[in-house]
Specification:
single chain; alpha/beta; Rossmann fold; 2 domains; 8-stranded mixed beta sheet; 6-stranded parallel beta sheet; 15 helices; 16 strands; elongated
């Protein structure tokens, strides 16, 4: 049985074991939008589709000319949305309860899976409640931690209260790490299940290392290329990345800093670190080459629910320096495939970078261990965990109303 304290659905029309499922997936972000939620969710759904499950994807229309995609085993329902403040390239779905009730009355899914907790996600929760459909959810973004970085730290408690109310109305909430599970449980979240994110080890591989790209970066074999990948935003703690780089330079380390990604913090970073390389947004293939061509992945973020970039860097043969939290805590073995800094000690983070780059053999040893250390996080294994979780939900004849 799943951990279940106060879910409010009756699971009807139990699906036979091993039968393909009809899964409605609700999300407010999807490729070509580039962020961890969109990229990891799309890969998971791809894996589930390959297992003959029928997927109905429900999301905001990304532009007014976009049309719905339909093929065997796959359909889309595109609804209205609006740009998210500070992130105009991303959409926030409008409330759409009536549209969802109509769609699911005509084509009833076996299960509704909600990946984001915005207005569209809340509408899906309400529509499923009316139609007595089982619902699962994802906890993918630390909105409550982000609030302090945008001058609205006072909103942290109301945000937690909303998220708790949202997720406790689902039969199961997937969380990416045991630490996140324990943190949310202390905050009153129920029905939690740890399911890690996956990584594409065919795409992210040490074989993608490119002398040509390193030449464009104007570095030689003795230069340590420090890479940062992700949204350039205040909550990512990127000032510490810049500070670490500058201290390394001051101590005569042969280093080069490369940022891959874009966002509202880019102008400040460029002003603070004009000699860094800013690649901007990158395709998956470009990103894979960048990871493999770097020497050290520096990831000082303290607000991640997981941080898939950690897996991608390791799969590419690039060891990681990170704080002892989120995915790093789960996948990094200190001084084997990377380095973990306890707590939130910025000074210790910088000192660890100095120690790592003092001797070339230290970095080389970790590079040799990086790719082989994350084999169990391949997507096929993660999809099996999710599929099994869905089937456990559906095999539950009834839960507390």
């Amino acid at each position: 049985m799943l951990e279940s304290d106060n879910a409010s659905y009756l699971v009807e029309n139990i699906v036979p074991a091993n039968a393909p499922l009809r899964i409605a997936v609700v999300t407010e972000t999807w490729p070509p939008e580039v962020n961890g939620v969109a990229l990891t969710l799309s890969r998971l759904i791809q894996e589930l589709s390959q297992r003959q499950h029928t997927i109905q994807l429900i999301r905001p229309r990304q532009d007014r000319h976009e049309t719905e995609s339909h093929r065997e085993g796959w359909s889309e329902l595109l609804l209205k949305g609006m740009p998210i403040p500070r992130y105009p390239q991303l959409k926030l779905g409008f409330p759409s309860k009536k549209s969802l009730i109509q769609a699911w009355t005509q084509q009833r899914p076996d299960l509704v899976h909600i990946a984001t907790e915005g207005p569209l996600g809340w509408s899906a929760l309400q529509a499923a409640r009316v139609l007595r459909l089982p619902v699962t959810s994802d906890f993918r973004t630390n909105f409550q931690s982000y609030s302090k970085h945008y001058g609205v730290g006072w909103l942290q408690k109301p945000i937690v209260a909303y998220l708790r109310k949202f997720h406790n109305r689902t039969l199961c909430t997937m969380v990416p790490t045991q630490a996140m599970h324990d943190q949310l449980k202390l905050l009153g979240f129920n029905n939690l299940q740890v399911v890690a994110r996956g990584v594409d080890t065919q795409l992210f591989t040490p074989n993608k290392r490119s002398p040509s790209l390193r030449s464009q970066w104007q570095v030689d074999d003795k230069t340590v290329v420090i890479l940062s990948v992700g949204r350039l935003a205040a909550e990512k703690n990127l000032d510490l990345t810049v500070n670490t780089y500058q201290v390394l330079k001051q101590n005569k380390r042969p280093v080069r800093l490369v940022f891959c990604g874009d966002g509202p913090y880019r102008a400040k970073l460029q002003a603070d670190c004009p000699d860094a390389i800013f690649m901007g947004m990158a395709t998956h293939s470009q990103l894979a080459v960048a990871y493999a061509s770097a020497d050290l992945f520096v990831f000082p973020s303290l607000t991640e629910t997981f941080g898939n970039v950690t897996l991608e860097a390791l799969a590419s043969g690039t060891p990681v320096l990170a704080f002892d939290c989120a995915a790093a805590k789960e996948v990094i073995k200190d001084e084997h495939n990377g380095w973990l800094v306890p707590g939130e000690d910025a000074q210790r983070f910088v000192l660890r970078a100095l120690a790592i780059t003092q001797n070339a053999s230290t970095l080389r040893a970790a590079q040799q261990n990086a790719a082989s250390s994350i084999q169990k996080w391949e997507w096929s294994s993660i999809a099996t965990q999710v599929e099994n979780m869905f089937r456990r939900v559906l095999s539950t004849e009834s839960v507390e109303r």
